[in-house]
Fold this protein.
Amino acid sequence: MTSAATNLSQRLAGRRAFITGAASGLGLACAEILAREGWHLVLTDVDASRLDLVASSFARDGARVAAIACDVRDAAAMAQLVDSAVATLGGIDLAINCAGVALAGAFHNSSAEEWQWIFDINMHGVANSCRPLIRHMARGKGGVIINIASIAAVTTSASMSAYNASKAAVVAFSESLMQEYTDYGVQVMVAMPGFFRTRLIESARGDEKTLQAAGRLIEDSGVSAEEVAEQMLAAAGRGNGYFIYPRPYRTYWRLKRLMPQYFQKLLPRLVRSRKKR
């Protein structure tokens, strides 16, 4: 019987995965799928207590897992964690960078400190993970890296400027890595999921009204983290460079790339339509 990770498991025989933001949401969903496929898992999250609960649950089920709390903003700590994982397991075949936060509200009400906070986690955190991972993968037999951005990088909705910009940076960064490391056997895929049920709002900062509206869209999406994880891992297994889900968001992406000015005019109507559902 095949699973979402079957192709990845066949391609990456070592089955060694490194996942950030693994204590909940998409990171946890990916870990659960890979655990069922018999992967060695190195899980990290800034929430140490929740990560411990996750690790205990995996251990009870017989999964091969190491869980180490770490803040993705700390480049030295991330490098040490990756180096330790490679030394213990002999390498990392798959990395999924899920750690992320949100900031909502009108731009003029935001602070420089808030922008620094969200970029340090959403963008620099991804880079802090990729840097040591790529060093090892490029020297070895390659591997797969999945960076989690958001469809917000495309839709760039109002009152989410910092979040939109940080996720757009992840897209551009990932595309740069695609060009730079393909010849080293490193496949980089950037994921741009739309709304799905996750705990993102719990750690978010900013305008309460905007966060409540976003929370309703997340809850009403009808899309689970498990569903996104299954589709995303399957896409990575096919060698894709981009993952956009649910499928209707692919139309947004194509419109933005082909007719950016038209898309900007159309976007307010799309947003209003989604809020009415």
Remarks:
- Residues 8 and 237 are 5 Å apart (CA to CA).
- The first strand starts at residue 16 and ends at 20.
- Residues 161-181 form the longest helix (21 residues).
